[in-house]
Structures are given as structure tokens and as C-alpha cells.
């Protein structure tokens, strides 16, 4: 890939942000997604970004592996697998603009639903009641998460919203998210190779960029203990909205 020194440095900063998002504010790597898509051709950028995301997932698992909630993961995986298959089919015919618009609209919709349900829960709690768990939540978030992660590596915000809406605290959130994306992103590699999104040229660029994931992850781990739960949730939702808007207006 013919990129300039300046473009490489921008990609390096985006790679560092991947590490930060994996250990601090999940969903913030939608900014990295937008940067990679701006510097590289949009479809090819997903293939370059995937190994970098997996490197961040490995670091997150090493940091938060004991905090995962496995019943939640097993509940999500079947729907996510279906979403990955649908996303693979979508990539066979959709152009870059169609992919970006679809993902951006989904992220903004899910952010709106999450904020609405949390406000409804707060009002119900004040009234002495509770909001019943929605049976559709795990299957719908799972399918959307699988679809968005396959077509644009943008599953982070969808799954972040699911975990936030399920009441996860910071460490449980980060541990569950870490294992989820290590497993899901690794399973996407054969699909991406088959679609021609990962090849020798993209892996050479990954080899140079992956080193920048480590300092980003270290910084995220140092920062996460200083972020209170309410601010953490607002940052996650805010990063989702920003990522959705970026995809819609790119």
C-alpha cells in the first residue's frame, strides 16, 4: 500500500487508540475505524484494521480476563454468528457508501434505544417498579453486533450499548467485552481472507502498526480506574454517537 509518512503516523495514532479503547472506553475505536477508512480504501481498511483489533483484544484479555461474565457471552454467540454470516453476504455486493451509511444509522439507533431504556428504568425505579427485561435484546444486539463487526469492524459500539444496558460495571464490562471480541474477531479472519480483505500486503502494514497498540492499551489501563461509572457510561455512549455520525457524513 502506497502511503506517505504522514499517513502512516496518523494510522499509528489510530492504532494506539485501539489499544486505549480496549482497556478503557470501549467503542472509542470507531474513531480509529473512521481514520483507517479515510487514509486507506474503505473496504481494504477493514482488513488492515482487523489484526490490530485482535492485538488489542489479546491485551485486554490479559488485563481483564478474570472479570468476564460467561453466561452473557454464551447467550450472545449464536446471534452474533448469524450476524457475521449476514454481514459476509452483505459485503459481497454492497459498496463503501452503503456499508458506512448502514452502520452509522444502526449505531445512532441503538444509542437512542439505550438512552431511552435507561431513562425509563430510572423513572420506574423512582416509582418503585422496574423495567422488565426485553426478550429481544440479546438476539437483536447479537445479530447487529455480528453484522456490524463483519462489515466494518464496528461491532464495539453495539456490544458496548448492550453491556451498558444490562447494568455491567466497568471491570465486568471490560472483561466480558475483551473475551467477546477476541473470540469474534478471530473467527472473522477466514471470512476476511476469503473476501480478499487480508493479504500479504495488508499484513506487512499491520506488522508495523501493531506495536503502537501496546502503549495505547497501557495508557487505557492507567486511566480506567480514575473514571467513575457514570462518566464511563457517558463516554461509551458518546463515542458510539460520534462514530455513527462519522460514518454517515464521511
Automatic annotation (TrEMBL):
**Keyword flag tRNA-binding:** no
Pfam families, per database record = TauE (PF01925)
Q: Which UniProt keywords apply?
A: Cell membrane, Membrane, Transmembrane, Transmembrane helix, Transport
**Where does the UniProt annotation locate this protein?**
Cell membrane
TM ranges: 47-64, 76-93, 99-116, 202-219, 231-249
Instruction: Pull one GO CC term from this UniProt entry.
Output: plasma membrane
InterPro entries registered for this protein in UniProt: TM_pro_TauE-like (IPR002781), TSUP (IPR052017)
The annotated topology with respect to the bilayer is: Multi-pass membrane protein
Domain of life where this protein originates: Bacteria
- Keyword field contains Magnesium: no
Family indicated by similarity: Belongs to the 4-toluene sulfonate uptake permease (TSUP) (TC 2.A.102) family.
The protein here is known as Probable membrane transporter protein
Per the UniProt record, the lineage of the source organism begins with: Bacteria, Bacillati, Actinomycetota, Actinomycetes, Kitasatosporales
Amino acid at each position: 500500500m502506497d502511503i506517505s509518512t504522514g499517513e502512516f503516523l496518523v494510522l499509528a495514532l489510530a492504532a494506539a487508540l485501539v489499544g486505549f479503547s480496549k482497556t478503557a472506553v470501549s467503542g472509542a475505536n470507531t474513531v480509529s475505524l473512521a481514520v483507517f477508512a479515510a487514509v486507506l480504501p474503505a473496504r481494504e481498511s477493514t482488513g488492515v484494521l482487523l489484526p490490530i483489533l485482535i492485538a488489542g483484544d489479546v491485551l485486554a484479555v490479559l488485563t481483564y480476563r478474570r472479570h468476564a461474565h460467561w453466561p452473557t457471552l454464551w447467550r450472545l454467540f449464536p446471534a452474533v454468528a448469524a450476524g457475521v454470516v449476514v454481514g459476509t453476504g452483505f459485503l459481497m455486493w454492497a459498496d463503501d457508501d452503503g456499508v458506512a451509511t448502514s452502520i452509522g444509522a444502526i449505531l445512532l439507533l441503538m444509542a437512542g434505544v439505550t438512552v431511552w431504556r435507561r431513562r425509563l428504568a430510572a423513572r420506574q425505579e423512582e416509582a418503585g417498579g422496574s423495567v422488565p427485561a426485553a426478550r429481544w435484546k440479546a438476539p437483536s444486539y447479537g445479530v447487529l453486533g455480528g453484522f456490524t463487526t463483519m462489515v466494518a469492524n464496528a461491532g464495539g459500539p453495539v456490544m458496548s450499548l448492550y453491556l451498558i444496558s444490562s447494568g455491567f460495571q466497568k471491570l465486568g464490562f471490560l472483561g466480558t467485552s475483551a473475551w467477546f471480541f477476541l473470540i469474534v474477531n478471530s473467527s472473522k479472519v477466514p471470512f476476511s481472507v476469503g473476501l480478499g480483505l487480508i493479504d500479504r500486503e495488508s499484513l506487512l502494514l499491520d506488522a508495523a502498526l501493531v506495536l503502537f497498540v501496546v502503549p495505547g492499551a497501557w495508557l487505557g489501563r492507567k486511566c480506567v480506574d480514575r473514571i467513575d461509572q457514570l462518566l464511563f457510561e457517558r463516554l461509551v455512549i458518546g463515542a458510539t454517537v460520534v462514530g455513527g455520525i462519522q460514518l454517515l457524513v464521511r
